[in-house]
Amino acid sequence: MSALRIEHLNFSHPKHSVFDDVSISFDNPGFSVILGKNGIGKSTLLDLISHLEKPNSGQFSGFPPANQMMYVFQSIAYSPDTTGGQLLSMYQEMNRPNPDFSTDDDFYLTVIKPLLDRQLQVMSGGELTVMFVYASAAIDKALYLFDEPLSGVDPQNQTHIVNILNRLSQQKPVIVTSHTVVPFQDTAAHFKFLTPAGPAASHTYAELTHGVDTATDLDIFLGLSEPSV
Amino acid sequence: MFLTKVHSFTKFYIRQATANRITLVFTLLFPVLWTLYQGISVHRTSQMSAGQLINATIPFTAYIIVSTALDGVAFATLATRDAGFLKSFYFVSGSRWPMLYANVLVQTGLVVLENLVYSLFSMWLYHAFSLRLLLVTVVLTIVAFPLVSLFLTCLLLLPVRSNSLNALGTSLLIILLMLYGVDTSNGFLSAVAQLSPYQFIANTLRVFLGDLSLGTVGIEAIVIAIYCGIGIFSYQRLSLQNRGQQ
Fold first, then answer.
1. What is the mean pLDDT of residues B61-82?
2. Which of A178, A222, B14, B177 has the greatest number of CB atoms lying within 10 Å of its CB?
3. What is the ipTM of this complex?
4. How many CB pairs below 8 A link A and B?
């Protein structure tokens, strides 16, 4: 399948330019993680891809229409007394199921099933995100967008979320924004470091860490901020 | 699949509506208090016929329809948008319309209930039971409420903050009620007045009561077409995310 491409993107809020001639591409299928400093426009880029925002100019190619995308926002809106099971049913009633996420695999039985009877209001932030990410991945869409799904989530739940995203990306394009890199180390994710202008560079995890096993998120982030990387 | 989506969202909106039961009481409060005042001070000794009862209660039936359309649908849509539900649900369902259909469906059920309570209260107050009034109330509400709700979504395109919009809506509710039935010789104003939801509900009532003259039916058809056109355009244009107009 052809890659998803954005070329010469220009976008500005009133009195503030966000993107000036930015180009970026995403594998299809594949796992893309958008990195960048706070306020650089990572969430705005997902909003532009999903048509929630309109660019001033730029060419988008290979992207499905908005109604065939799934977009999970950083700030998740939910009805507090809804249970995990009701949420999952609601998503699945409205869509074809994703055949890669069945209810008899180990992940579903050990991680998701215990959450089904619990109300969303009593779940921790991490459990809530796991539930929404799983419910979104378990329906059949042409493109999946996740805005900072690891934000405020403990390491164990981060592993669960990355596990879901990695499985999903075997068949579908998955685009994620993040401030952390290390949780994605065992995936085939391509990291795109976003800057306000020019093409976004793409790296594998090995390229980012230069083979140093003990590299931290801070090392990687500072390394990316240097023009030599 | 579309109906399945509407059904799923209906469960969500029922939960929302039952969580906001106090709104139902407030919607009924003004009509009930005013009718009580009228009943005690003006019509104290008179007993009403079914026709008189319909004429006395329909303005408030219309008020209940319009205020529920405003609060339960138009402003509720804005609230769900600002809370992030509208965009989340859009990506789950692939369309913005099942949410509106589901909410209108739930609110239609509630507004029928409210109008039945109000009609029964009026009958008790005026010592006159009318099955015809009950039937007219139910049918009128079921037909008029969805159309008025759709039309009032045009308010959501106004470039004003949410709290200003609430104040504007409340004022509009009272002003339109006061202007209801005011006669004007100006043709343009007269035509615009036909677009008032109260006028539309009164006209719909005339049709139900057997006035099938070309004028009444023609105006009804034109207003319905305008309501649908404006409503569909407005809701389709509504931004799915709040861009800072808190």
1. 91
2. A178
3. 0.92
4. 56
Q: What is the mean pLDDT of chain B?
A: 86
CA distance B117 to chain A (A): 29
**How far apart are alpha carbons A68 and B80 in whole angstroms?**
22
Q: In the sheet that A143-147 helps form, which strands lie side by side, from edge to edge?
A: A69-72, A143-147, A173-177, A30-35, A190-193, A201-203
Q: What is the pLDDT of residues B116-132, one digit of tens each?
A: 999 999 888 888 888 88
B30 Cβ contact partners less than 8 Å away, ≥ 6 residues apart: B63
Point out the residue among B87, B94, B239 whose CB comes nearest to the CB of A68: B94
CA distances from A15 to A10, A20, A169, B80, B127 (A): 14, 14, 37, 29, 66
* Chain B interface test: which of A90, A132, A141, A147 (most B C-beta within 10 Å): A90
**Residue A39, by phi and psi: left (phi above 0), alpha (psi -120 to 50) or beta?**
left
pLDDT in tens, A33-73: 999 888 899 999 999 999 999 999 999 999 999 999 999 99
Residue of A nearest to B91 (CA): A70
Residue A228 confidence class, pLDDT cut points 50, 70, 90: very low
CB of A71 less than 8 A from some CB of B? yes
**Measuring CA to CA, how many Å separate B204 from each of B109, B148, B232?**
19, 12, 21
> Are A52 and B241 within 8 A, CB to CB?
yes
Token pair for B57: 């209660």
Query: A184: number of CA atoms within 13 Å, CB side?
Result: 30
> What is the Cα A184 distance to its own chain's centre?
11
Range scoring the smallest mean pLDDT among A110-124, A126-140, A187-201, B74-88? A187-201
Structure tokens belonging to residue B80: 């769900």
Of B8, B91, B239, the CB nearest to A90: B8
CB atoms A52 and B87 under 8 Å: yes
| Residue A85 touches partner B, C-beta closer than 8 Å | no
Residue in the structure block whose two tokens are 């039952």: B18
Residue A17: beta bridge partners?
A12
Q: Which of A66, A47, A38, A65 is nearest to A9 (CA)?
A: A47
